[in-house]
Specification:
elongated; metal-binding; 415 residues; four-stranded parallel β-sheet; Rossmann fold; kinase; alpha/beta; 13 strands; seven-stranded mixed β-sheet
Length: 415
């Protein structure tokens, strides 16, 4: 086996997941096994790199125990960022600075673990590299609980988040049955424009649980009056009603439901508004108009950091895409993202491949309309058949004094 002859750098960007560090381990270990001299880590992604904030990962990952701990550690070990690179023709100076830093560090291979916005970064850096005859190869490693990256069957991070959502939804439904009175529980689940996560609430429907009564995804316009009528209809049949809603559901004119009452002020570098309060708004309206007890539950960051409920399939694939990115770069690829290709559902078989990052960046993959029922208030069995293989099996945390043990980066001032 040939060896990598230069140095490697890897960063993490965007929202974290329960398995993103397994991809980091996949990059690190595969690069070291192939003879990389130094594997650097960017602290807080490309933004940290611009400030020359990097670490030698061999100073942090020193043993097999460290590797196993890091695989099981949620969130981004190196820290993250939401930093949008300008178009190359708009500001060449920032690119000159980045490549000057990389050249000084003798970097030949650059890996970025992230979602849509991170692939935009890989696209721009690889384009600049080719235009200027740089030897550096750039590869994207997929990550996002939102599962909205194009080309790949699914993204690492999604399976574990879905497993958590399905499990906790079952418990919320059980909790709602305690009291002999009418009540409505609204579960708000992440998902700006794609409903992959919210649809996972349907996993709760099984032989020991009837599942949520309705599920609303952002792919379908949300009619508040129709929703209120459906709630009233359900209460004629049962006392406890549980509804899963995406934070990104919108009314017909395009406004987010959460914008109907509260101003949403925070906007990140990519123009994404912070969405919150959808469940609270609807719960307040139900309570006001019906007088019944309501509860709004936001899963929020819990759904992306629950490493105690990680899917073994998910954490294994996260490691594999990291290693596959290193192998592809070593073989001469650049400007590509690793993808997962499903070969079979039963038995579940998935392999890695590579795909042109230009055909991935800034493209959102949404839930197919045929995987949502005709009424637009639930997902179909096809959706669940797609999802179930991704949540299978567990990886037990390494416990210390009754709690999961994690690996943290002492150089990261935020940890």
């Amino acid at each position: 086996m040939k060896e990598i002859r230069g140095n490697v750098i890897v960063g993490q960007s965007g929202g974290p997941t329960a398995v993103i560090n397994s991809s980091l381990v996949g990059v690190y270990k595969t690069a070291r096994d192939r003879g990389a001299k130094i594997v650097y880590g960017m602290l807080h992604g490309i933004q940290g790199l611009l400030e020359s904030r990097v670490v030698d990962l061999s100073d942090h990952i020193k043993s097999d125990l460290d590797i196993e701990l890091l695989k099981r550690t949620p969130s981004s070990y190196l820290g993250s960022c939401r930093f949008k690179l300008p178009e190359i023709h708009e500001d060449q100076e920032i690119y000159k600075k980045i490549f000057h830093i990389l050249d000084d560090m003798e970097i030949e291979y650059f890996f970025y673990i992230g979602g849509n916005d991170s692939m935009d970064t890989i696209k721009k850096l690889s384009d600049y590299s080719i235009l200027n005859g740089s030897r550096i190869r750039f590869m994207g490693v997929p990550k996002t609980i939102d599962n909205d990256l194009a080309a790949t069957d699914h993204t690492p991070g999604y399976g574990s988040a879905a497993k958590y959502i399905g499990s906790i939804t079952k418990e919320v439904i059980r909790d709602g049955l305690v009291y002999d009175q009418q009540n409505v529980t609204l579960i708000e689940i992440m998902g700006r424009n794609a409903g992959w996560l919210t649809g996972a609430a349907a996993l709760a429907k099984c032989e020991d649980c009837e599942g949520p009564d309705m599920i609303f995804l952002p792919e379908i316009p949300f009619d508040i009056e129709e929703f209120m009528n459906k709630i009233a209809g359900l209460h004629k049949q049962k006392k406890s009603v549980v509804v899963a809603i995406s934070e990104g559901i919108r009314v017909e004119d395009g406004r987010y439901v959460c914008e109907l009452t509260d101003n949403v002020d925070y906007v990140d570098a990519f123009g994404h508004r912070q969405l919150t309060g959808t469940a609270r708004y609807l719960a307040s309206r139900i309570a006001r108009e019906t007088g019944c007890k309501t509860r709004a539950i936001e899963f929020s960051s819990l759904q992306r950091c629950a490493s105690h409920m990680v899917s073994r399939v998910d954490i294994t694939e996260a490691y594999q895409v990291g290693g596959a990115a290193v192998k592809a770069a070593f073989e001469g690829e650049t400007g590509k993202m690793v993808i997962l290709k499903r070969i079979s559902d039963d038995p579940y078989i998935c392999v890695t491949d590579i795909y042109d990052v230009h055909k991935v960046a800034n493209i959102e993959k949404k839930v197919p309309r045929e995987w949502i029922n005709e009424a637009g208030d639930y997902v179909t069995e096809e959706f669940l058949n797609y999802l179930r293989p991704l949540i299978q099996a567990e990886l037990t945390p390494i416990m210390t004094d009754g709690l999961p043990r994690h690996l943290y980066c002492k150089n990261n001032k935020n940890q």
